[in-house]
Design brief:
It is a single chain. By secondary structure, the protein is α/β, with parallel strands linked by helices. 40% of the residues lie in helices and 14% in strands. The longest helix is centred in the N-terminal third of the chain and has 22 residues, at 84-105. The N and C termini lie far apart (41 Å).
Length: 324
């Protein structure tokens, strides 16, 4: 059996490769990583092929391959202001289409696709289940929404495609927007929140994401969409207070008028001084919780890490990398 991990050299990809490698010990299987960059380390039973999914894919799939599609352009790569839609769509939409077409030619029809909760847009009800209306308002979310449409088209052709929609993924190896928070904490400076901080802002551990993928493989890659998020996320102000206290930071939380802050962030973005992207700040002061019931019931998945633990681990890594 072969596991084809598209984007296997990326942040989540490294965790998925490591987990499948450990779980496959003693089983006749092969892990093949398709990416533009070679992974830092390759398990014994794995191979690497340099493939840019935005271009024609000449990799030959086999009919019984399990394809795990993790490759995507995201905000942490600092997208350009001009042609931003093209930046996301070239890889996220055209790349997904290229993969599906290449699979179809070889009779391969099983894929796990990692999407995003941003396809939902602003919540119309809570918690947000997998059937929530989709109304993304940013180019990244829109690119993932279009990619999901492609997956739906290929399902009609007989494909089995599992779609995951995670909240903000946190874990060792990438700080993303959290680095701004950690810098303020490190210097003991005030931390302005967007809004009062009385809302819940859910996250999910990268380890829990990798485990969800493995469970979907074990279940035969069901034709369904699954949300990924933590259990019982705390209020933003309580989460941040806990992290500040346990790290010994002297920072204080500053509540703000959310609408005004978002207006200022939007205006700065218009001037070319993007501190945060619209898809990041627009819902930062809103109650936003995804429903993970279906993921638990169908896949038997349970998130093992809480939001506070994820942030503490990420902060510890930030401090260690800074000292090095």
């Amino acid at each position: 059996m072969r596991y084809i991990i598209v984007g296997g050299a990326g942040f989540l990809g490294e965790y998925v490769v490591d987990l499948i490698s450990k779980k496959s010990t003693g089983i006749q299987s092969e892990i093949i990583i398709l990416d533009t960059l070679k992974p830092k380390k390759l398990p014994n039973q794995s191979k690497f092929f340099c493939v840019d999914i935005a271009k024609k894919i000449d990799f030959e799939f086999l009919s019984d391959d399990n394809v795990i599609h993790l490759a995507a352009k995201q905000y942490h790569l600092k997208p350009p202001r001009k042609n931003r839609k093209e930046y996301f769509f070239d890889t996220n939409v055209s790349g997904t289409k290229n993969i599906l077409e290449a699979m179809e030619k070889r009779g391969c029809n099983k894929m796990i696709y990692f999407s995003t909760d941003m396809v939902y847009g602003k919540p119309q009800y809570l918690p947000i289940d997998s059937h929530h209306p989709k109304n993304p308002f940013g180019d990244y979310g829109k690119s993932k929404f279009e990619s999901e449409k492609l997956c739906e088209e290929y399902r009609k052709k007989g494909f089995n495609i599992t779609i995951f929609r995670p909240r903000m993924i946190v874990g060792k190896g990438r700080f993303g927007i959290l680095i701004k928070l950690f810098k303020l904490m490190d210097m003991g400076l005030p931390i302005p929140m967007i809004g009062s901080g009385n809302n819940c802002y859910q996250m999910v551990s990268v380890l829990d994401c990798a485990n969800a993928i493995y469970l979907a493989l074990q279940k035969g890659i069901p034709n369904a969409e699954f949300n990924l998020g933590s259990k019982n996320p705390p209020k933003v102000k309580d989460l941040l207070r806990k992290v500040i206290l346990q790290t010994g930071s002297k920072s204080l939380l500053i509540p703000t008028y959310g609408r005004f802050v978002k207006f200022c962030l939007g205006f700065l973005g218009f001037l070319g001084l993007e501190i945060m992207y619209k898809e990041q700040y627009e819902i930062a002061d809103e109650e936003y919780i995804v429903d993970i019931t279906e993921t638990q019931n169908i896949l038997g998945w349970e998130p093992l890490q809480e939001d506070g633990d994820m942030l503490l681990e990420a902060y510890d890594e930030y401090k260690t990398s800074k000292e090095k």
